[in-house]
């Protein structure tokens, strides 16, 4: 396949920052393809095209990592050392997506407009409303739930969407007021919701090879939208809108966006780790090495990775719960 040859597994592991560049390029291609082929579903299909493009690279890297572990067992002393290359690849891929989604949020107009570039040939420039429809809906749900948690003497009830997770409605915490609302109940709610996404990341990665890429890409698009919104607001206050203004606004957006989502870093890392656990088991199952020493090592690694992911996810829930209630 052509996509498998864009970046070799060896290069991806030695220079993982290339995955950031590739993610940025894949986002551009996916965004425009999704809009012109399926304009009414562009916000989700953009992610689908990104995953389709990136899956061969990630899968081949998984296979190389698993083969090395089989050929040289014990070369790395801990399970984190054995799979740290994959964490770095996922991280750069995630950062590339965040930057791409944030950049296009600034560039695209709020509403659809005509863009005549070649004489009488006019093409419609995508709008934020079409490309970021699902992301904006998710962020509104997050804002509404956070407002409910912070309001005094207002019951928290009904359905809302919490965290930078996959779309859809989830159960809100049990009805309570400010006086009897307990910090740990909020943490428990956030942790259980995020743990569901972690489970999906593991299952997707196990069942579909690299299905967890979709969840990771979705989270990247949400964070990119947050940064893009801040950057667009900053750009609107500047006297000029040239390339330097865009870069400056994007820098402000990144700086402020990181401040708004400190819990997002451990949360996303937990999803990486879960995806790696599911992925290495999937690769070993495909090779049919169920009763070998190789599979025993992989199974132990996967279990240790999942436990680590759960611990990191709980830390993220503690941070997020504190921020939601006390900031």
TrEMBL record:
Record key words, sorted: Membrane, Transmembrane, Transmembrane helix
Superkingdom as given in the UniProt entry: Archaea
Membrane keyword on record: yes
Transmembrane segments: 17-37, 89-108, 183-206, 212-231, 243-262, 268-290, 302-325
Cross-referenced InterPro entries: SpoIIM-like
Protein name as catalogued: Stage II sporulation protein M
């Amino acid at each position: 396949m052509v996509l498998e040859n864009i970046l070799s597994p060896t290069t991806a592991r030695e220079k993982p920052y290339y995955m950031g560049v590739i993610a940025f390029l894949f986002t551009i291609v996916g965004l425009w393809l999704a809009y012109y082929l399926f304009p009414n579903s562009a916000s989700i299909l953009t992610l689908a095209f990104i995953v389709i493009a990136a899956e061969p690279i990630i899968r081949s890297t998984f296979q190389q990592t698993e083969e090395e572990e089989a050929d040289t067992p014990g070369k790395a002393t801990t399970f984190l050392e054995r799979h740290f290359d994959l964490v770095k690849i996922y991280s750069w891929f995630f950062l590339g997506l965040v930057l791409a989604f944030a950049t296009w949020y600034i560039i695209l107009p709020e509403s659809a407009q005509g863009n005549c570039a070649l004489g009488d040939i006019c093409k419609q420039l995508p709008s934020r409303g079409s490309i970021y429809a699902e992301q904006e809906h998710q962020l509104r749900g997050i804002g509404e739930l956070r407002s409910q948690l912070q309001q005094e003497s207002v019951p928290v009830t009904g359905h809302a969407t919490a965290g930078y997770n996959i779309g859809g409605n989830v159960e809100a915490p049990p009805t309570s007021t400010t006086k009897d609302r307990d910090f740990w109940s909020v943490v428990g709610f956030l942790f259980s919701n995020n743990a569901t996404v972690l489970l999906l990341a593991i299952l997707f990665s196990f069942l579909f090879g690299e299905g967890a890429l979709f969840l990771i890409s979705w989270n990247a698009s949400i964070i990119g939208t947050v940064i893009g919104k801040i950057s667009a607001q900053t750009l609107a206050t500047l006297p000029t809108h040239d390339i330097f203004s865009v870069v400056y606004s994007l820098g402000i957006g990144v700086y402020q966006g990181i401040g708004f989502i400190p819990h997002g870093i451990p949360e996303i890392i937990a999803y990486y780790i879960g995806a790696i656990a599911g992925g290495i088991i999937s690769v070993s199952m495909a090779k049919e090495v169920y009763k070998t020493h190789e599979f025993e090592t992989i199974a132990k690694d996967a279990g240790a990775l999942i436990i680590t992911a759960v611990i990191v996810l709980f830390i993220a829930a503690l941070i997020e719960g504190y921020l939601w209630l006390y900031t």
